[in-house]
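Bug report (template v2)

What were you trying to do?
Predict the complex of my protein with guanine.

What happened?
Run completed; filing so the output is reviewed.

Input:
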Amino acid sequence: MELLDGKMVSLTIKDELRREVQRLLDSGKRPPHLAVILVGDDPASRTYVKGKLQSCEYVGFSSTLKRLPASITEEELLHQVRRFNDDPDVDGIIVQMPLPDHITPQRVTQTILPSKDVDGFHPVNVGLMTLNFPCLMPATPSGILELLDRYNIPTKGKHCVVVGRSRIVGRPTSIMMSRGGQPGEATVTLCHKFTPPEMLRQLCPLADIVIVAVGKPNLITADMIKEGAVVIDVGINRVEDPTRKAGFRLVGDVAFDEVSQKASFITPVPGGVGPMTVSILLRNTLEGYLRHHHALGDFAPSKEPNE
Ligand code: GUN
């Protein structure tokens, strides 16, 4: 078994970005700028946002954090998004999810300018991604594919079971694994909360690659994994642990100790997919920046996509 070391790969990507920023500065240009909106004070969201801002600093991007109270109206939040849309010095915008119940996340997502949508959640980007045209792609699915790529794990013709159909991870991952390109070209089965548990138990052992993004500790056990399968665990769950200073520890959706006995490659939690999300987000911000500065041109499709 080999660990898919997202922490290490993520650092490699951040170092690549850092060099890129230095080149921009050397040629007299300003660095890329990421704007982050955090609504309310959910502890996990605060931790993620802190990580994103620290990573911006590491690679040399400028960043702005706009903290808004959980009581903010949807209209006020949209107004803040539009201000960042209109600001020529902002290249990427993220609104950290989840949002309070009185705000419709889709309305927020659709307000962000597609060219600044570094989360890749806007319907325009989702459509372009689905059709395999150049676009800003969602960070966590891209991070998963990047890990598969950097570890030279073949995906073409393989059977990939994705568990979880969220807009942020499961659904886009299922599309990216099945569409053309490397990584891609896999036969994909998408399981979700309406997949009967006995069906999930039948399907997972058929998979060469299992990608789980549900949020349920120990959902995937060793009996559900084929010998030599690749296992990607996107879950980040807090479980009580009085021996830790924080009172909790982080576990994924996969029973790591037993599954790692059978898997050929597996992501740890923490240190697997999580850090990849952050570094891809930064890479997307650089991409948005280069497009704004016309170094890369617009997202208009230039050639027939590879199905
Ligand atoms: N919440 C959990 N994952 C994400 C993400 O990738 N982007 C944003 N904006 N919020 C999240």
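What did the reviewer find?
The pocket of guanine is lined by residues 94-97, 119, 139-140, 168, 277 (CB under 6 Å). The chain has ten helices and eleven strands.
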